[in-house]
Protein backbone atom coordinates (compact mmCIF):
# COMPACT_ATOMS: atom_id res chain seq x y z
CA UNK A 1 0.00 0.00 0.00
CA UNK A 2 2.41 2.67 -1.06
CA UNK A 3 1.82 3.38 -4.74
CA UNK A 4 -0.69 5.66 -6.38
CA UNK A 5 -3.42 7.40 -4.43
CA UNK A 6 -6.91 5.98 -4.78
CA UNK A 7 -9.86 8.13 -5.79
CA UNK A 8 -10.51 10.76 -3.16
CA UNK A 9 -13.88 10.51 -1.48
CA UNK A 10 -14.63 6.96 -2.63
CA UNK A 11 -18.17 6.02 -1.68
CA UNK A 12 -19.07 2.46 -0.74
CA UNK A 13 -22.16 0.92 0.89
CA UNK A 14 -22.31 1.13 4.67
CA UNK A 15 -22.72 -1.79 7.03
CA UNK A 16 -26.03 -1.89 8.88
CA UNK A 17 -24.23 -1.87 12.25
CA UNK A 18 -20.66 -0.83 13.21
CA UNK A 19 -18.19 -3.73 13.25
CA UNK A 20 -16.26 -2.13 16.15
CA UNK A 21 -17.71 -0.34 19.18
CA UNK A 22 -16.46 3.12 20.10
CA UNK A 23 -17.79 5.56 22.69
CA UNK A 24 -18.43 8.77 20.78
CA UNK A 25 -18.62 11.78 23.05
CA UNK A 26 -16.12 10.54 25.66
CA UNK A 27 -13.44 13.05 24.68
CA UNK A 28 -13.36 14.58 28.16
CA UNK A 29 -12.77 11.23 29.89
CA UNK A 30 -9.97 10.34 27.47
CA UNK A 31 -8.31 13.72 27.98
CA UNK A 32 -8.46 13.25 31.75
CA UNK A 33 -6.90 9.80 31.37
CA UNK A 34 -3.97 11.34 29.49
CA UNK A 35 -3.54 14.07 32.11
CA UNK A 36 -3.44 11.50 34.93
CA UNK A 37 -1.23 8.96 33.18
CA UNK A 38 2.10 7.97 34.74
CA UNK A 39 4.37 5.06 33.67
CA UNK A 40 4.23 2.04 35.98
CA UNK A 41 8.02 1.54 35.90
CA UNK A 42 9.65 4.10 38.22
CA UNK A 43 12.80 4.29 36.07
CA UNK A 44 10.88 5.15 32.91
CA UNK A 45 10.57 8.90 32.48
CA UNK A 46 8.31 8.67 29.45
CA UNK A 47 6.80 5.98 27.23
CA UNK A 48 8.70 6.18 23.93
CA UNK A 49 6.57 5.72 20.80
CA UNK A 50 8.43 5.11 17.53
CA UNK A 51 6.50 5.93 14.38
CA UNK A 52 7.49 4.37 11.06
CA UNK A 53 5.93 3.80 7.68
CA UNK A 54 6.03 4.69 3.99
CA UNK A 55 6.91 8.20 2.92
CA UNK A 56 3.90 10.53 3.01
CA UNK A 57 1.79 8.27 5.24
CA UNK A 58 1.33 11.03 7.80
CA UNK A 59 3.75 10.38 10.69
CA UNK A 60 4.51 14.06 11.38
CA UNK A 61 0.86 14.98 10.79
CA UNK A 62 -0.23 12.40 13.38
CA UNK A 63 2.13 13.94 15.97
CA UNK A 64 0.77 17.40 15.13
CA UNK A 65 -2.82 16.17 15.49
CA UNK A 66 -2.14 14.51 18.87
CA UNK A 67 -0.44 17.70 20.06
CA UNK A 68 -3.39 19.82 18.89
CA UNK A 69 -5.90 17.62 20.71
CA UNK A 70 -3.92 17.65 23.97
CA UNK A 71 -3.27 21.41 23.75
CA UNK A 72 -6.90 22.14 22.95
CA UNK A 73 -5.91 24.24 19.94
CA UNK A 74 -4.23 23.89 16.56
CA UNK A 75 -0.45 23.38 16.71
CA UNK A 76 2.26 22.52 14.19
CA UNK A 77 5.35 21.57 16.20
CA UNK A 78 6.31 18.57 14.03
CA UNK A 79 6.74 20.06 10.58
CA UNK A 80 4.86 18.06 7.97
CA UNK A 81 5.29 17.97 4.21
CA UNK A 82 2.67 17.74 1.48
CA UNK A 83 1.50 14.12 1.32
CA UNK A 84 2.07 14.02 -2.45
CA UNK A 85 5.84 14.47 -2.07
CA UNK A 86 7.79 11.45 -3.33
CA UNK A 87 10.69 11.87 -0.90
CA UNK A 88 10.82 11.83 2.87
CA UNK A 89 10.50 15.23 4.53
CA UNK A 90 11.81 14.04 7.90
CA UNK A 91 15.59 13.68 7.79
CA UNK A 92 16.70 13.67 11.43
CA UNK A 93 15.84 11.48 14.41
CA UNK A 94 13.89 13.70 16.74
CA UNK A 95 11.98 13.28 19.98
CA UNK A 96 8.74 15.23 20.33
CA UNK A 97 7.48 16.08 23.79
CA UNK A 98 4.02 17.49 24.47
CA UNK A 99 3.53 20.22 27.06
CA UNK A 100 0.75 20.03 29.57
CA UNK A 101 -1.61 22.99 29.33
CA UNK A 102 -0.96 25.66 31.94
CA UNK A 103 1.93 23.74 33.52
CA UNK A 104 5.66 23.74 33.04
CA UNK A 105 6.00 19.98 32.65
CA UNK A 106 5.35 17.50 29.83
CA UNK A 107 3.16 14.47 29.28
CA UNK A 108 5.06 11.27 30.24
CA UNK A 109 5.10 9.93 26.70
CA UNK A 110 7.15 11.02 23.68
CA UNK A 111 7.10 10.41 19.94
CA UNK A 112 10.04 9.69 17.71
CA UNK A 113 9.60 10.44 14.02
CA UNK A 114 11.98 8.94 11.48
CA UNK A 115 12.67 9.23 7.78
CA UNK A 116 10.02 7.46 5.69
CA UNK A 117 10.45 4.03 4.12
CA UNK A 118 10.86 4.38 0.36
CA UNK A 119 11.06 2.06 -2.63
CA UNK A 120 14.62 1.00 -3.50
CA UNK A 121 17.81 -0.01 -1.70
CA UNK A 122 19.22 3.48 -1.24
CA UNK A 123 16.08 5.53 -0.67
CA UNK A 124 14.45 6.41 2.61
CA UNK A 125 15.43 5.25 6.07
CA UNK A 126 17.36 1.99 6.35
CA UNK A 127 15.65 -0.80 8.28
CA UNK A 128 18.86 -1.31 10.29
CA UNK A 129 18.63 2.27 11.61
CA UNK A 130 15.08 1.62 12.80
CA UNK A 131 16.26 -1.55 14.57
CA UNK A 132 19.02 0.38 16.35
CA UNK A 133 16.57 3.13 17.30
CA UNK A 134 14.28 0.56 18.88
CA UNK A 135 17.15 -0.58 21.09
CA UNK A 136 17.87 3.01 22.12
CA UNK A 137 21.17 3.36 20.22
CA UNK A 138 20.20 6.43 18.15
CA UNK A 139 20.41 9.89 19.71
CA UNK A 140 18.36 12.94 18.80
CA UNK A 141 19.75 14.87 15.85
CA UNK A 142 21.11 11.88 13.92
CA UNK A 143 20.73 12.61 10.21
CA UNK A 144 19.57 9.53 8.34
CA UNK A 145 21.61 8.43 5.33
CA UNK A 146 19.88 6.11 2.83
CA UNK A 147 23.28 4.72 1.76
CA UNK A 148 24.53 3.45 5.11
CA UNK A 149 23.42 2.93 8.71
CA UNK A 150 24.71 4.67 11.82
CA UNK A 151 28.02 3.26 13.11
CA UNK A 152 29.04 2.81 16.73
CA UNK A 153 31.70 5.51 16.40
CA UNK A 154 29.17 8.13 15.26
CA UNK A 155 28.65 10.95 17.86
CA UNK A 156 24.90 10.28 17.65
CA UNK A 157 25.34 6.61 18.55
CA UNK A 158 24.24 5.80 22.11
CA UNK A 159 26.38 2.90 23.29
CA UNK A 160 24.69 2.57 26.71
CA UNK A 161 20.96 3.24 26.31
CA UNK A 162 18.82 3.56 29.43
CA UNK A 163 15.36 2.04 29.85
CA UNK A 164 13.88 5.41 28.85
CA UNK A 165 16.02 5.55 25.68
CA UNK A 166 14.53 2.31 24.40
CA UNK A 167 11.39 2.20 22.31
CA UNK A 168 8.38 0.89 24.26
CA UNK A 169 5.83 0.66 21.45
CA UNK A 170 6.22 0.57 17.67
CA UNK A 171 3.50 2.21 15.59
CA UNK A 172 3.17 1.84 11.83
CA UNK A 173 1.52 4.80 10.10
CA UNK A 174 -0.04 4.21 6.69
CA UNK A 175 -2.59 5.97 4.52
CA UNK A 176 -6.04 4.65 3.63
CA UNK A 177 -5.91 6.79 0.50
CA UNK A 178 -3.13 4.79 -1.16
CA UNK A 179 -3.80 1.94 -3.57
CA UNK A 180 -0.94 -0.55 -3.39
CA UNK A 181 2.17 -0.85 -1.27
CA UNK A 182 5.39 -1.48 -3.16
CA UNK A 183 6.93 -4.86 -2.37
CA UNK A 184 10.33 -3.44 -1.37
CA UNK A 185 8.65 -1.08 1.14
CA UNK A 186 6.52 -3.92 2.49
CA UNK A 187 9.64 -6.07 2.91
CA UNK A 188 11.36 -3.29 4.90
CA UNK A 189 8.29 -2.99 7.13
CA UNK A 190 8.28 -6.75 7.73
CA UNK A 191 11.95 -6.59 8.73
CA UNK A 192 11.18 -3.90 11.26
CA UNK A 193 8.24 -5.88 12.63
CA UNK A 194 10.34 -9.02 13.00
CA UNK A 195 12.98 -7.16 15.00
CA UNK A 196 10.33 -5.60 17.23
CA UNK A 197 8.81 -9.04 17.77
CA UNK A 198 12.22 -10.45 18.71
CA UNK A 199 12.60 -7.66 21.28
CA UNK A 200 9.06 -8.18 22.56
CA UNK A 201 8.05 -4.63 21.64
CA UNK A 202 4.26 -4.28 21.17
CA UNK A 203 3.08 -3.08 17.78
CA UNK A 204 0.11 -1.13 16.52
CA UNK A 205 -0.86 0.52 13.24
CA UNK A 206 -2.60 3.83 12.54
CA UNK A 207 -4.70 4.17 9.38
CA UNK A 208 -4.65 7.83 8.33
CA UNK A 209 -6.60 9.89 5.75
CA UNK A 210 -9.80 7.91 6.28
CA UNK A 211 -11.92 10.87 5.20
CA UNK A 212 -10.12 11.19 1.84
CA UNK A 213 -10.42 7.45 1.22
CA UNK A 214 -14.13 7.09 1.94
CA UNK A 215 -16.88 9.53 0.99
CA UNK A 216 -19.26 8.19 3.65
CA UNK A 217 -16.66 8.80 6.35
CA UNK A 218 -15.85 12.23 4.94
CA UNK A 219 -19.54 13.13 5.21
CA UNK A 220 -19.88 11.72 8.73
CA UNK A 221 -16.82 10.54 10.65
CA UNK A 222 -19.01 8.31 12.80
CA UNK A 223 -19.43 6.05 9.77
CA UNK A 224 -15.80 4.93 10.15
CA UNK A 225 -16.72 1.50 11.54
CA UNK A 226 -19.65 1.11 9.16
CA UNK A 227 -17.50 1.68 6.06
CA UNK A 228 -16.99 -1.52 4.06
CA UNK A 229 -14.18 0.16 2.13
CA UNK A 230 -12.18 1.03 5.25
CA UNK A 231 -12.83 -2.37 6.79
CA UNK A 232 -11.46 -3.99 3.62
CA UNK A 233 -8.42 -1.68 3.68
CA UNK A 234 -7.65 -2.70 7.24
CA UNK A 235 -8.10 -6.41 6.51
CA UNK A 236 -5.80 -6.21 3.49
CA UNK A 237 -3.14 -4.43 5.52
CA UNK A 238 -3.52 -6.90 8.38
CA UNK A 239 -2.91 -9.78 5.96
CA UNK A 240 0.02 -8.04 4.26
CA UNK A 241 1.94 -7.11 7.40
CA UNK A 242 0.56 -9.50 10.01
CA UNK A 243 -0.75 -6.88 12.42
CA UNK A 244 -4.02 -8.09 14.04
CA UNK A 245 -7.18 -6.18 13.21
CA UNK A 246 -7.68 -5.12 16.84
CA UNK A 247 -4.27 -3.42 16.69
CA UNK A 248 -5.16 -1.29 13.64
CA UNK A 249 -6.75 2.06 14.46
CA UNK A 250 -8.28 4.45 11.90
CA UNK A 251 -7.93 8.19 12.50
CA UNK A 252 -8.56 11.45 10.72
CA UNK A 253 -5.76 13.95 11.26
CA UNK A 254 -6.08 17.71 11.20
CA UNK A 255 -5.00 19.04 7.83
CA UNK A 256 -7.19 21.93 6.63
CA UNK A 257 -9.25 22.70 9.76
CA UNK A 258 -8.68 25.74 11.97
CA UNK A 259 -10.85 24.48 14.85
CA UNK A 260 -10.90 21.17 16.72
CA UNK A 261 -13.73 18.66 16.23
CA UNK A 262 -14.97 16.33 19.03
CA UNK A 263 -15.32 13.26 16.76
CA UNK A 264 -11.84 13.72 15.26
CA UNK A 265 -10.49 14.09 18.80
CA UNK A 266 -12.24 10.93 19.99
CA UNK A 267 -10.62 8.75 17.32
CA UNK A 268 -7.17 10.27 17.95
CA UNK A 269 -7.45 9.94 21.74
CA UNK A 270 -8.80 6.37 21.54
CA UNK A 271 -5.79 5.40 19.42
CA UNK A 272 -3.39 7.28 21.70
CA UNK A 273 -4.75 5.54 24.82
CA UNK A 274 -4.15 2.10 23.32
CA UNK A 275 -0.65 3.11 22.17
CA UNK A 276 0.30 4.41 25.63
CA UNK A 277 -1.23 1.43 27.45
CA UNK A 278 0.61 -1.08 25.24
CA UNK A 279 3.88 0.79 25.69
CA UNK A 280 3.43 1.11 29.44
CA UNK A 281 2.78 -2.61 29.87
CA UNK A 282 5.96 -3.43 27.94
CA UNK A 283 8.09 -0.83 29.78
CA UNK A 284 6.97 -2.29 33.10
CA UNK A 285 8.59 -5.63 32.17
CA UNK A 286 12.05 -4.13 31.54
How far is the N terminus from the C terminus? 34 Å
* Largest sheet, spatial ordering of strands: 2-3-1-4-5-6
Q: Based on the structure, what is the oligomeric state of the protein chains?
A: single chain
SS element count, helices: 8
In brief, what are we looking at here?
With 286 residues, this protein is an alpha/beta fold.
Can you describe this structure?
There is one protein chain. The protein is α/β, with parallel strands linked by helices. The chain has helices at 27-36, 59-71, 127-134, 183-199, 210-213, 215-219, 228-241, 262-283; strands at residues 47-52, 94-96, 109-113, 169-175, 203-208, 248-250. It has one domain (27-283): Rossmann fold (3-Layer(aba) Sandwich). The chain has 8 helices and 6 strands, in the order αβαββαβαβαααβα. It has a 6-stranded mixed sheet with strand order 2-3-1-4-5-6, with helices on both faces. β4 (169-175), α4 and β5 form a beta-alpha-beta unit. The longest helix has 22 residues, at 262-283.
Amino acid sequence: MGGNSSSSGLTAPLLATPWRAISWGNERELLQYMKNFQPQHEEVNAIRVLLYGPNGAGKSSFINSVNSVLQGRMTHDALASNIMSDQSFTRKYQTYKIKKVGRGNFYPFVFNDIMGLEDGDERGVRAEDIKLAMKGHVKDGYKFNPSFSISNDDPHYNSSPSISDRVHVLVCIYSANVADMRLSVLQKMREVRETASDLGIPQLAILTNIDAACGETETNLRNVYRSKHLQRKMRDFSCSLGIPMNCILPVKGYSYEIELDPDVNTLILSALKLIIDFGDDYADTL
